């Protein structure tokens, strides 16, 4: 049993947990950390020179963060003895990467304006920069998010979609976040950059839906190429490009889908289902339409919030130490 708490400790604890849905706005750090956006872009640029794929890997964070209890950097928390974080969840383990880029951004920001810029906002700024620096559209991001105090491996397992997913399942999933079919197809266009593992496609190469046969929608020459990259029983950590121009953010991804050259089942299925096929066809012909829809989708996805109490973490991998709450939980 915990001893009764002095009244002043209870008050402090209430103050700590009062935040809920916070208003987001462009230029949120204009006065408190005017160089924040410049610093984020600079670190992104440096890392992309070192390793071009880091742009894609960081941009993916926005999806995996925002879909699991809102854009609150919960996916950046390391496991603790009391909490299984999201890093080892089904979709993230051996797959999400470039966490150290976020650490580098955070360290620079903490030097310039300590305790000011949230990790959740860093993900949003860095994702935008990854797109711009890869040749994609630019847009103004809304900021002012807070970082979560917890993470949930279980929620990440239950929510994040499998590369086996079909368009029908994906439409239903995105609808739960008020993201339209058009938003979903445009956001899938993020696979215009980056790579995925053989692990994510061997089932469709050798045993689609348990049929013992390959997915019949894969274009034959592309299928040969994938078979060579990912032989049955081979190393499933080997990676392949998600589209034919994996460091350029463009509409090549959609052209590839039209040609039957989608890497993941969840990509190619967008051209199989009539509800999504029309958007794939549109985006494959009209890069501007893709860019506009993509920006709209990223902004909507960035608006997702958990409504739970938050803080500005000083290290994105762990919550700030909190003696009062530790006392309350004892
Ligand atoms: C529509 C449902 C989606 C599914 C089923 C899906 C699934 C996947 C899978 C399975 C991988 C490769 C994982 C691996 O093999 O290690 C991947 C990579 C990636 N995803 Fe998605 N994804 C989806 C939507 C999104 C969205 C909305 C974004 C961002 C806005 C995104 C951004 C990325 C990026 C950039 C990569 C490449 C990362 C890298 O090279 O490190 N994805 N996705
Ligand atoms: C799509 O996937 C879901 C879940 O795996 C499945 O129940 C459904 O039958 C599939 N839909 C079609 C039309 O293939
Ligand atoms: C979706 O929109 C409805 C109606 O505006 C709203 O009540 C609900 O909270 C929204 N859901 C999400 C996840 O934003
Ligand atoms: C294909 O998948 C089904 C169902 O998941 C499984 O029962 C079957 O053994 C698999 N076949 C091969 C050749 O791996
Ligand atoms: C992939 O590599 C990780 C370590 O990076 C290892 O733990 C895992 O077993 C490997 N997975 C496969 C499918 O080979």
From TrEMBL:
Top-rank taxon of the source lineage equals: Eukaryota
Q: What is its EC number?
A: 1.11.1.7
Q: Give site residues, Transition state stabilizer.
A: 60
Q: Name one GO cellular component term.
A: extracellular region
Residues the record lists as binding heme b: 191
Which UniProt key words apply to this protein? Calcium, Disulfide bond, Glycoprotein, Heme, Hydrogen peroxide, Iron, Metal-binding, Oxidoreductase, Peroxidase, Secreted, Signal
Active site, UniProt feature: 64 (proton acceptor)
Q: Which Pfam family name is an example for this entry?
A: peroxidase
Q: How is the cofactor bound?
A: Binds 2 calcium ions per subunit.
According to the UniProt entry, its GO molecular function terms are: heme binding; lactoperoxidase activity; metal ion binding
Cystine bridges: 33-113, 66-71, 119-316, 198-230
Give the protein family.
Answer: Belongs to the peroxidase family. Ascorbate peroxidase subfamily. Belongs to the peroxidase family. Classical plant (class III) peroxidase subfamily.
Q: What name does UniProt use for this protein?
A: Peroxidase
Species for this entry:
Populus euphratica
The gene behind this protein is LOC105130313
């Amino acid at each position: 049993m915990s001893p009764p708490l002095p009244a002043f400790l209870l008050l402090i604890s209430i103050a700590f947990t009062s935040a809920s849905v916070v208003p987001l706005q462009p230029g949120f750090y204009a006065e408190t950390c005017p160089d924040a956006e410049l610093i984020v872009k600079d670190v992104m640029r440096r890392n992309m020179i070192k390793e071009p794929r880091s742009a894609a890997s960081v941009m993916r964070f926005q999806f995996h963060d925002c879909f699991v209890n809102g854009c609150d950097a919960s996916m950046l928390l390391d496991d603790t003895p009391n909490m299984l974080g999201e890093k080892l969840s089904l979709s993230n383990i051996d797959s999400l990467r470039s966490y150290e880029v976020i650490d580098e951004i955070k360290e620079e920001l903490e030097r310039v304006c300590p305790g000011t810029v949230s990790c959740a906002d860093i993900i949003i700024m860095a994702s935008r920069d990854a797109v711009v620096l890869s040749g994609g559209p630019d847009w103004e991001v809304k900021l002012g998010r807070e970082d979560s105090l917890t993470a949930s491996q279980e929620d990440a397992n239950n929510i994040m979609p499998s590369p086996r997913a079909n368009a029908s399942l994906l439409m239903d999933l995105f609808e739960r976040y008020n993201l339209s079919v058009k938003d979903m197809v445009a956001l899938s266009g993020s696979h215009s950059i980056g790579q995925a593992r053989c692990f994510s496609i061997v089932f469709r190469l050798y045993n689609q839906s348990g049929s013992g046969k390959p997915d019949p929608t894969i274009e034959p020459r592309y299928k040969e190429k994938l078979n060579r990259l990912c032989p049955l029983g081979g190393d499933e950590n080997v990676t392949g490009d998600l589209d034919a121009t994996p460091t350029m953010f463009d509409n090549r991804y959609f052209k590839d889908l039209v040609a039957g050259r989608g890497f993941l089942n969840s990509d190619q299925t967008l051209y199989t289902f009539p509800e999504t096929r029309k958007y794939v066809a549109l985006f494959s012909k009209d890069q501007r339409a893709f860019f506009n829809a993509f920006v709209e989708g990223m902004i909507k996805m960035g608006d997702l919030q958990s409504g739970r109490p938050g803080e500005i973490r000083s290290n994105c991998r762990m919550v700030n130490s909190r003696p009062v709450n530790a006392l309350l939980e004892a």
